[in-house]
Amino acid sequence: MKLEELQPGLTVQITEGYHKGKTGKVIAVGTFEGGPKQIGALVDIADPVLVIAMPDALEKLPEEPVPPGWEEFEI
Q1: Percentages (nearest 5) of helix, strand, coil residues in the chain
Q2: Residue 72: partners with Cβ closer than 8 Å, 6 or more residues away
Q3: CB contact at 8 A, 61 and 32
Q4: CB 27 within 8 A of CB 40
Q5: Rg of the chain's alpha carbons, rounded to an integer?
Q6: Which residue, among 36, 16, 24, 34, has the nearest Cα to 61 in the 3D structure?
Q7: Domains observed in the chain
C-alpha cells in the first residue's frame, strides 16, 4: 500500500515481518519513534500490543458486513 492510502479505521493484513498474516485496523498514521523514526501505521491486531507497520507491509482487506441482527457501537 501507499502511505497516502492509509487512514484510521481501515482494515488491513500485515504481509511482512513477525506479525505476517495477522489482520487488524489502522489506529493512526504518521511518524512513530522507537529507535529510528519511521513513517507508517499503528495497527490494532486484537493482541495486547499495537504494531507499527510500514505501508509496503500492509494489504487492504474488504470490509466485512455485520451479520443481520447485529449492530456495531463504540464502547
Answers
A1: 10, 35, 55
A2: 66
A3: no
A4: no
A5: 13
A6: 24
A7: 3-60 (2.30.30.30)
The residue whose grid cell reads 507497520 is 53
Closest CA to 1 of 13, 21, 51, 31: 13
Dig out the grid coordinates for 10 from the structure. Answer: 481501515
Round to the nearest angstrom and report the end-to-end CA distance of the chain. 30
Q: Read off the C-alpha cell for 63.
A: 470490509
Task: Please report where in the chains the cell 491486531 appears, as a residue.
Answer: 45
- pTM, full prediction: 0.70
**For 4-37, what is each residue's pLDDT tens digit?**
888 998 999 999 989 999 988 999 888 877 666 6
**Per-residue b/e over 48-75, b at no fewer than 16 CB within 10 Å?**
eeebebebebbeeeeeeeeeeeeeeeee
